[in-house]
Amino acid sequence: MTDNLPEWMLRAFSRLRLGRYVGAARGNALVARRLYWWNVEASAALYGSLHCLELALRNALHQQLTLGYRRDDWWTAAPLNPNGQRLVAKARSKCERRGLVPAPPDSMVAELSFGFWASLVSGGSGYDRLFWVPTVHKAFPHYSGRRDTLYDGLWSLVLLRNRIMHHEPIHHRDLAADHAKIYRMLGYLDPQLAKEAQAMDRFPAVLAGKADTLGGSRPSRF
User: Fold this and answer.
1) Inter-CA distances, 28 with 1, 25, 34, 158, 168, Å
2) Residue 95 sits in which domain range?
3) Which domain of life does the protein's organism represent (predicted)?
4) What is the DSSP string of the chain?
5) Could you tell me if residue 30 is inside a domain?
6) 82 in a structural domain
7) Are residues 58 and 109 in contact, defined by beta-carbon separation less than 8 angstroms?
8) How many domains does the chain have?
9) pLDDT for 160-211, tens place per residue?
């Protein structure tokens, strides 16, 4: 199915990877080529809003947990589950390999993954009782809904972010819904940030131009 793609493209990106795009393009190698580049463009256009969400989430949670535990290395006292403890240990090891001993709290916060922070909103391991009820809900001052609904939204965006960062296809997703969800989550944390980010966001134009890109009248740009 990939035989009509340029050899340099197959060499650079692999036949297996590109075969998925040819399949999505129903065997049309030219459309598959355009779809591949559009996927890169769409991923790049989503980076900015996901950047804002990940940083705002971790800083809001860190602030509230620091207040709640009265220490900025709150993870040393918090009842994290084994996976949370593993992620903290991994972050500490990364800091120490850079010569940061003991690991400063600010560096630890930066090393802990988006998935770690989102997991603090989950209900597993008693996190709803141990984290959400006393402390974590305060990080979302503009949210009044159910914890599990918020968690589901955040976790779906963790998965989207990971697909983007690992250069995976996202073109098949409901990207309009994903994009709207990012701004909903940002709004729960900080409406002013959401407004500022949205004013600079080029993703709507990229999404609107998908058909033209696949048709050949609009080149991808990233």
Assistant:
1) 8, 5, 10, 32, 20
2) 45-215
3) Bacteria
4) --TTS-HHHHHHH-HHHHHHHHHHTTT-HHHHHHHHHHHHHHHHHHHHHHHHHHHHHHHHHHHHHHHHHTSTTGGGTS---HHHHHHHHHHHHHHHHTT-SSPPHHHHHHHS-HHHHHHTTS-GGGHIIIIITTTGGGG-TT--S-HHHHHHHHHHHHHHHHHHHTT---TTS-HHHHHHHHHHHHHHH-HHHHHHHHHH--HHHHHHTHHHHHHTSS----
5) no
6) yes
7) yes
8) 1
9) 999 999 999 999 999 999 999 999 999 999 999 999 999 999 999 999 999 9
Residue with tokens 């340099």: 8
Contact of 121 with 132, CB cutoff 8 Å: yes
Could you tell me how many residues make up the chain?
A: 222
User: Whole-angstrom Cα distance, residue 205 to residue 57?
Assistant: 26
pTM over 0.85: yes
